[in-house]
């Protein structure tokens, strides 16, 4: 079964990561292999164009059906200290094709060399840049969307909270894939998803957060833990999460908090038996293909 192949692959990555004590250099190398469960996954059907955003070397991912006036800023995951436009290219290429948008994959600065708020500042700047730049040059966008996974989901939410006082700077909609929303991982209550997660251990989460936050130690800062922010003014947001991952609680609690504040534009999509950022395992995982189509349908309604 495809899901068995994905889980086996993830388990191998987790075991290798544990043997290196999660050192950032090794973590980056392993993250580059995260989606490599099958050669089919690594096939990229899109045009890749380099882009410079400020001082950041980024890339445009453009499928044949792309409307360059509809743009996605993609914020990769990787524990704030790994990942890149290259590691996530299979996913961004399939998002570009599924949604018919031009995707800008941003290579934000990584911890521990660049801890909070460096990466967040890059995402904010990237959103502003995307509004006025297309793959062909300076050109205002008709629609701007923000999509982020895991740590990238955290940065995406933090960016929106930072921009909330100027609604015109917010994206038209946001999609979050297994976002980290409450970085106080000393808390209890991860539930059965904790035991079934093949890639993330609750024991390593505080270490990862410490590498990202460093001296900025207030884990209730909404720009660090977005669940503590003013969530009622966030734009239309879709949160997809697997039920076989430790960050399930982060997604569920965040959506509940947003709705409790009166946000009627946020929705949660739970996927039984799916692991962390399962969307990146298309096309071999049927649920990943379905999730990408759900994202397309959500964005088409905006």
Tell me about this structure.
The protein is built from 9 helices and 10 strands. It has an 8-stranded mixed β-sheet, with helices on both faces. A two-stranded antiparallel ribbon has the order 5-6. α3 packs across α9 and α4 crosses α5. α3 links the parallel β3 and β4. The longest helix is centred in the N-terminal third of the chain and has 18 residues. The mean pLDDT is 95. The protein has a single domain, classed as 3-Layer(aba) Sandwich (Rossmann fold), CATH 3.40.50.1820. The chain is of the alpha/beta class and 302 residues long.
Short description:
The protein is α/β, with parallel strands linked by helices and about 300 residues long.
Search tags:
302 residues, alpha/beta, Rossmann fold, 8-stranded mixed β-sheet, 9 helices, 19% strand
Strand order of the largest sheet: 1-2-4-3-7-8-9-10
Which CATH class applies here?
Alpha Beta
- In round numbers, the mean pLDDT is 95
What's the oligomerization state? single chain
- Let me know the number of strands: 10
User: What is the N-to-C succession of helices and strands?
Assistant: HHEEEHEHEEEHEHHEHEH
CATH topology heading: Rossmann fold
CATH architecture: 3-Layer(aba) Sandwich
Instruction: Supply the number of helical segments.
Output: 9
Query: What's the end-to-end separation, in Å?
Result: 36 Å
State the domain count: 1
């Amino acid at each position: 079964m495809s899901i068995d192949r994905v889980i086996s692959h993830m388990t191998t990555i987790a075991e290798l990561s544990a043997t290196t004590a999660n050192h950032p250099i090794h973590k980056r190398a392993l993250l580059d292999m995260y989606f490599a469960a099958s050669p089919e996954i690594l096939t990229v059907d899109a045009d890749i164009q380099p882009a410079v955003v400020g001082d950041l070397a980024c890339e445009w991912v453009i499928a044949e059906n792309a409307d360059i006036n509809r743009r996605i800023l993609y914020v990769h995951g990787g524990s704030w200290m790994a990942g890149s436009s290259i590691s996530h290219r299979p996913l961004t290429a399939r998002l570009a094709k599924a949604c018919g948008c031009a995707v800008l994959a941003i290579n934000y600065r990584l911890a521990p060399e660049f801890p909070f708020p460096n990466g967040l500042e890059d995402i904010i700047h990237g959103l502003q840049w995307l509004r006025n730049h297309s793959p062909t040059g300076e050109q205002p966008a008709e629609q701007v969307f923000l999509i982020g996974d895991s740590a990238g989901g955290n940065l995406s939410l933090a960016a929106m909270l930072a921009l909330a006082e100027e609604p015109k700077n917010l994206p038209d909609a946001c999609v979050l894939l297994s976002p980290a929303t409450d970085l106080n991982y000393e808390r209890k209550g991860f539930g059965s998803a904790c035991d079934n997660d093949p890639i993330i251990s609750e024991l390593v989460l505080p270490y990862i957060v410490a590498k990202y936050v460093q001296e900025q130690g207030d884990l209730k800062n909404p720009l660090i833990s977005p669940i503590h922010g003013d969530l009622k003014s966030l734009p239309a947001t879709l949160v997809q999460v697997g039920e076989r991952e430790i960050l399930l609680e982060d997604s569920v609690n965040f959506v509940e908090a947003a709705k409790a504040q009166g946000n009627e534009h946020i929705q949660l999509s739970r996927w039984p038996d799916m692991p962390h950022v399962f969307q990146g395992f298309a096309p071999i995982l049927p649920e990943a293909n379905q999730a990408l189509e759900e994202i397309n349908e959500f964005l088409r309604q905006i």
